[in-house]
Design a protein that fits this description.
Number of domains: 3
Number of strands: 19
CATH architecture of the largest domain: 3-Layer(aba) Sandwich
Helix content: 25-40%
Strand content: 15-25%
Shape: globular
Largest sheet: 5 strands, parallel
Structural class: alpha/beta
Radius of gyration: 24 Å
CATH superfamily of the largest domain: HUPs
Amino acid sequence: MKSSRKSKLYIDQEALATLALVQEGLLAPVDKLMNKEEAEYVDTHKEYKGKSFPFSFILAPNGRRNEEVLKSLQKGENVDLVVDGKKVGEVECEEVFTINPIERLKSIYGTADESHPGIAATLKRLGRYALSGDFWVEFDEVKKAKEIIEERKRELGAQSVAAIMLAAKPLHRAHERLIRLTLEENDLVVLFLLKPYTSDSFGYELRHRTLEFFVKNYLPKNRVLIVPLENTYIFAGFNELILDAIVAQNFGCTRLVVGKNHAGLGLYYDKNSVKSIFDDLKGITIDIQTVSEFVYCDECKTLVSTNTCPHGSHHHISYHADSILELLQLGILPPAVLVRKEISAIILSHLFPGRFKNLEKLFADLIPNPGIMEERNEKDFYIELMKLYQTTSLT
């Protein structure tokens, strides 16, 4: 006799967030977990319901308990989705079918090489059985993000809404220039701050603080929104830009702004015109604007586009986020030409709390005193120290 207890599938927060993107229509035309026939068609033809989609959307959680449940499910049976012991949703079983985890990795990442970032982690979460069917989940963050954008669009009467996908790790001067240029041409700019499901010292909250500081203090803040984007494993592969365009369009944006040096863009020339991966896609109508790389030119003495600067690359300082991040992680204050001093101060005071043994003495010995007694912290010290770096009378 079959147990009357309801079946449960155990998933993680990352899988939950990915399902929520579908539930809120942000990965449309996808609106369900695909069955075997649909999944094979999408993986082969890169298309679903007449619109482009880069790979099948399935749920195949790993684990012995999950595999036993999936093998026992019957069509029409409801199964609970559980995260950390709490029910977060439900799937109505349409079909259970086997998948090849390696082929699944190839369809998402373009490779199954475990040295590729994210592949080893995804392989550990991926089982051999997939479940298809309609579902619902509880995940308010994605819904709130949609509502915030719609409300701001109504307030502004915004016709042109641009999306920029940002890791801001760290937020540097080239990011600032890109945001300002985009703001000049659009009624509203939505900064989708990537919120990955990996943990490190430079997490989402710190990156949000730096971006929020810049928006509040240096931009017309009513025309710029910071929205978290659940940057789950599906965005980690070579189809990232296609998914970015789909998500931005479904969020109600009219334009997606990306750098021409983005690894996934794939610009090429065909009959004297520039083409990209977006040119042959179906159903993706959002305007894709590509922006040239920004560099600091030591001849122009300012931030310039590589398309407009007449000087050679040997005069250019590039804004490589990894290298700037390395300076910060080593506790080195980057030059203000790379990162705004207030941003560096926020980051360093977070990464190295209580770093200075006698902060008051350092202030007294090194920093000009306006004659007013006031309490100052590590962030203030970094800002004042950068001012000394920028003094030029003895250089």
